[in-house]
Write a structure and sequence with these properties.
The protein is mainly alpha-helical. It has a domain of about 25 residues. The chain is built from three helices and two strands; from the N terminus they run ααββα. Strands 1-2 form a two-stranded antiparallel ribbon. A hairpin with a 3-residue loop joins strand 1 and strand 2. The longest helix has about 45 residues. The protein is flat, with a radius of gyration of 46 Å. The model has no long low-confidence stretch (mean pLDDT about 80).
Length: about 140
């Protein structure tokens, strides 16, 4: 005979909170519903062939409208499309984008001007250092 294992504390707590009756009810609630009985408008015709009273729209014969003058004779389903146009409010989005572009362009120009000024200053310092290094140091010249 197999030994019965000792339940862990969490297993005992789970059994206390959700006993077998509750778990059985939860499982039964999630079972599929029983199959419904056939509809009442089905009759047996001839040699056991089942026929429904409504064949569905696919099998119904086409009947043109009684008054052709009142309705269109074109039955293709074609409708003229709406003309293409920008969505409502796109002009506001365009204005916002134009303003953001102008701000970005101004920032880029400012950065380019700063970079050019720094390069000019560096070139001037380098030229000054070269000029100072070229001057004689006060000794006799030959």
């Amino acid at each position: 005979m197999a030994e019965r294992r000792v339940l862990q504390p969490w297993e005992r707590e789970a059994l206390r909170v959700c006993n077998t009756d509750l778990l059985r009810d939860i499982v039964n609630d999630n079972r599929p519903a029983p199959v419904a009985a056939p509809s009442t408008n089905v009759t047996v015709v001839g040699s056991g062939r089942v026929q429904d009273f409504d064949y569905g729209p696919k099998y119904r014969p086409y009947r043109p409208p009684e008054d052709d003058n009142a309705t269109t004779t074109d039955r293709s389903g074609w409708k003229e499309g709406r003309p293409l146009r920008p969505p409502e409010g796109i002009n506001y989005v365009d204005a916002l984008c134009d303003q953001a572009d102008a701000i970005d362009r101004a920032e880029r120009l400012r950065k380019l001007a700063e970079t050019a000024a720094i390069r000019r200053a560096e070139a001037a310092l380098k030229q000054r250092d070269e000029d100072l290094n070229k001057k004689p140091k006060g000794g006799p010249q030959k």
